[in-house]
Input
Amino acid sequence: MSADVAPPAPRPKSTGLHQGEIRPGVAKVDPIIVVDGVRRVFGGLTAVDVEHLEIPRNAITALIGPNGAGKTTLFNLLTGFDKPNAGTWSFDGTSLAGIPAYKAARMGQVRTFQLTKSLGLLTVLENMKLGAPKQTGERLWAGILPFLWRKQELEIEEKARELLARFKLDAKEKDFAASLSGGQRKLLEMARALMSDPTLVMLDEPMAGVNPALTQSLLDHILDLKDLGMTVVFVEHDMHMVRHIADWVVVMAEGRIVAEGPPDTVMREQAVIDAYLGAHQDVDLGVVTGRVEGELSAEGQELAETAREIDAAIEDSESEASAEASADATDADAGETEDGK
Output
């Protein structure tokens, strides 16, 4: 989340989501998704290797991790867009192993993509109507008999317009989807996903490529999904966003779950820091900064030298700023003296 974008207004976080000690694979009080032994291998590379994972119901869960951690691959597996080499998983108590994506969506599990999938040569309203399930007019013979589907078509259009108004896209309903900005396409994709009244909404990097002016709107809509009784799982790299809206965080690295828990707790875990920054070194930062006496290795000495260079640069910058401020003040005093004469 950009520094110049205000965080969303605080809303109550869901608590009491887990049972027992927090650790990777911890049991949840009321899981909506349960994953067991799911593995996906591409050639000789193991992209996903999840021993056990449960997603809590009626909560916002963030799936985070460095690039290449396997987050999107796991999304694809859980939603039926890819098939694992091994493992099982269930949604709302029903096994989804071998279930294609369109059937998973009909069961109430929908997703969005990193790159929006709107149809650019259709209008915004037409894109919305595509998201409605069980349309009578889509059947081969019923399509040529308007009296069989016209009433349903009007109901679908009404629902689509209500959602467009909620997402502040109602003024764009007659525009081609290709004319929308990246952020507006994200909003359109999220709104279209709601046409099927889902139970679980999975968002793959919803903030990617979004103008900061629309960031606040997207955040509010994600929070609204939870308020409407849905479960949300999203992939995101923006840690500020994760901290503000997520109730639970799952951390992946090299295809595995390395940590999970409430945002503030997870952000402080060494396994998470290692996943993003690499394994920590046995160098005492107190010694590096000179606050604690001790001996440094060659690597530590390099780090200490870098720290000193940074400190020197900061001091030089502060000195220059102070000198400029003094000069400005002197000029201002001189100007006032001249005016007084």
Notes: The mean pLDDT is 81. The first helix runs from residue 71 to 78. Residues 122-179 form one domain. The chain is about 40% helix and 20% strand.
